[in-house]
Design a protein that fits this description.
Strand content of chain B: 25-35%
Helix content of chain B: 25-40%
Structural class of chain A: alpha/beta
Helix content of chain A: 25-40%
Strand order of the largest sheet of chain A: 1-2-3-4-6-8-9-10
Mean pLDDT of chain B: 71
Oligomer: heterodimer
Strand order of the largest sheet of chain B: 2-4-5-6
Largest interface: A-B, 24 and 25 residues
Strand content of chain A: 15-25%
Order of helices and strands of chain A: HEHHEHHEHEEHEEHEHEHEH
Number of strands of chain B: 6
Number of strands of chain A: 10
Number of helices of chain A: 11
Mean pLDDT of chain A: 80
Distance between the termini of chain A: 69 Å
Largest sheet of chain A: 8 strands, parallel
Distance between the termini of chain B: 49 Å
Shape of chain B: globular
Number of domains of chain B: 1
Radius of gyration of chain A: 20 Å
Structural class of chain B: alpha/beta
C-alpha cells in the first residue's frame, strides 16, 4: 500500500523536469515517428486532464502541472534540408508537422494557467511564422509567465522578440542559433505561408533584467532585442556574459551589450571559431 | 618587426577589445577554435599567435583575477608534438600574462582542447601516450607564470574523440 503522504514529494521529484523529445525527420522528409510522437502528446494531455489532484476531494494537493519546474521541448524539424527551395514539399512537410503537434497548445495552455515553470528549453528547428498560430500563441503565452527564470531558446528561425520581452522575471537567457523575424528574407513562397499571424499580446509592465546571457550565433536576435522600441531587455544588470561562436568585434549588438553591462559585468566569455571568421572574410 | 608582425595570421583583422571600462570584471574566458586539416603544415599547429594578437589588442581592466584561455583544435593528428615547444610566441604569451596588464591575477587556466576524429590511423594507445607526454612539457611553456607568488596556474589537455559509425 502506498502512503498518500508520499504523493506530494514523489510528484515534485518525478515531474520536476518534463522533456518532450521528438525524433528527427529523415532525409526524404518523412516523420518516421509521427504516430508515436503525436500519441505521446495526446497521452500527456490525458495525464494532465486526469490528474487526481484536480478532483474536489483532493483539494490542497498540488496539481501535476504545478510540480513541473523545467519544461524541455525538443521538437522535430519541420522539413528535411533536402526540401530547400522546393516550396510545395516544404509546405506539405510543415502541414504534417503542424498536425503532429496539434495537441501542443492544449498542453501549454494547461501548463500556463497558472504556471509554476521556472525554466523553459525550446528547440524548435522551424521557421516561426510557418508554425500553426495556435502553437506559436500558446508558446508566447507560456513565455509570459512570471515564474520563468531561465529561457533556453535554440534553432528557431524568425523568433519574434515578444518571446523574450514579456518574460518579466527572466534571470538567465540562452539564445542559440536563433534569428529574429526581420532577418528572414521573404520570398513569395514564405509570404504565402506567413499569411496567418498569431494574435498580438498586451505589453508587459516591466522589461526583463537578466543576470546571465549566453548567445551562440545569435547576433541578429540580440540586435533585435536591443533595438526593440518597447520594453527592450535591460542588459544593465548582467553579471555573466558568454558569446559563443561570435566575433564580438564584428557585431555591433554584442558591443552594445558589453557597454550596457559595464557597471555590473563580472564574467565575460568569448569563443570564436577562426575558420568561420576566415571564411566570412573571404566570401 | 616582431614575430607577430611577421605572422600571416596578423593580416586577419582581429580587431581590438576595449574592456578597460568593465571595472567589475573578475573573469575573462577566451576560447579560440580552429579546425585543422592533416595536410596542413604541422608547424602552424599549436601556435598561440591568434590568442596573443587578441590579448595584445585587448584593453583589459586591472580587476581581472581569473583568466581562462582555451586553445581548441579539431581533426589534427596526435602524432604532431614537436613544433609547439620551439615557437617563441609561447614565451611572449607567458610574459604578457605576467606583465602589468593583469596585476591582481589569482588564477590562470590554460586548456588545450584537442578534438580527434577516428579517421586515419589513430590509435588510442598513441593518443594516450601523446597527451600524457605533453602535459608536463606544456607546463614548462609558462615559467614566469609558474614562478609568480600567489598565482594558481593550471595547464591541461582535454581530448575529445568522435566516432563515425
Amino acid at each position: 500500500m502506498t502512503s498518500w503522504s508520499l504523493l506530494i514529494p514523489a510528484r515534485r521529484s518525478i515531474f520536476h523536469h518534463i522533456r518532450i523529445k521528438q525524433r528527427e525527420v529523415n532525409y526524404i522528409g518523412e516523420f518516421k515517428h509521427f504516430d508515436r510522437d503525436h500519441k505521446r502528446l495526446l497521452d500527456l494531455v490525458k495525464i494532465l486532464e486526469n490528474d487526481p489532484s484536480l478532483h474536489p476531494h483532493r483539494k490542497g494537493t498540488p496539481t501535476l502541472s504545478s510540480c513541473i519546474r523545467h519544461l524541455d521541448l525538443q521538437l522535430a524539424p519541420a522539413a528535411s534540408p533536402m526540401f530547400h527551395g522546393n516550396v510545395s514539399m516544404r509546405m506539405a512537410a510543415q502541414e504534417r508537422w503542424n498536425a503532429m503537434n496539434a495537441p501542443l497548445p492544449e498542453i501549454l495552455n494547461k501548463l500556463s494557467s497558472p504556471s509554476h515553470i521556472e525554466q523553459v528549453t525550446l528547440y524548435l528547428p522551424c521557421t516561426w511564422r510557418q508554425v500553426d498560430p495556435s502553437i506559436t500563441s500558446s508558446i508566447l503565452k507560456l513565455l509570459r509567465s512570471p515564474s520563468i527564470r531561465t529561457l533556453d531558446l535554440s534553432h528557431i528561425h524568425g523568433l519574434p522578440t515578444d518571446a523574450v520581452l514579456h518574460c518579466p522575471n527572466l534571470n538567465d537567457l540562452r539564445v542559440r542559433y536563433v534569428a529574429d523575424q526581420e532577418s528572414i528574407t521573404d520570398t513569395a513562397a514564405t509570404k504565402e505561408l506567413h499569411s496567418i499571424q498569431p494574435p498580438p499580446f498586451e505589453p508587459s509592465y516591466s522589461p526583463p533584467t537578466p543576470k546571465y546571457l549566453t548567445t551562440t550565433s545569435g547576433s541578429s536576435f540580440l540586435a533585435a532585442l536591443i533595438k526593440s522600441p518597447v520594453n527592450a531587455v535591460a542588459f544593465n544588470n548582467l553579471q555573466h556574459l558568454s558569446f559563443v561562436d561570435a566575433w564580438i568585434l564584428s557585431f555591433d549588438a554584442e558591443s552594445r551589450v558589453v557597454e550596457t553591462a559595464a557597471p555590473t559585468l563580472r564574467f565575460l566569455h568569448i569563443s570564436s571559431n577562426l575558420n568561420n571568421r576566415i571564411g566570412t572574410q573571404l566570401s | 618587426m616582431t614575430l607577430l608582425d611577421q605572422s600571416s595570421l596578423t593580416n586577419i583583422p582581429l580587431g581590438s577589445l576595449d574592456l578597460a571600462h568593465l571595472k567589475q570584471l573578475r573573469t575573462l574566458d577566451v576560447k579560440l577554435e580552429e579546425v585543422m586539416v592533416l595536410s596542413q603544415d604541422p608547424l602552424s599547429l599549436y601556435s598561440p599567435r591568434d590568442m596573443l594578437t587578441l590579448l595584445r589588442k585587448t584593453s583589459a581592466p586591472t580587476s581581472i583575477e581569473v583568466l581562462h584561455l582555451t586553445f581548441a583544435w579539431e581533426y589534427i593528428t596526435p602524432k604532431v608534438e614537436n613544433p609547439i615547444f620551439s615557437q617563441p610566441e609561447w614565451d611572449i604569451l607567458d610574459g604578457l600574462l605576467n606583465g602589468s596588464n593583469y596585476p591582481v591575477l589569482k588564477e590562470v587556466a590554460i586548456v588545450f582542447q584537442i578534438g580527434f576524429d577516428d579517421y586515419e590511423d589513430l590509435e588510442f594507445v598513441s593518443l594516450d601516450r601523446s597527451t600524457a607526454a605533453l602535459s608536463p612539457r606544456l607546463l614548462a611553456l609558462f615559467p614566469r607564470l609558474r614562478r609568480r607568488e600567489g598565482l594558481d596556474v593550471q595547464v591541461s589537455i582535454k581530448t575529445d574523440i568522435s566516432y563515425s559509425m
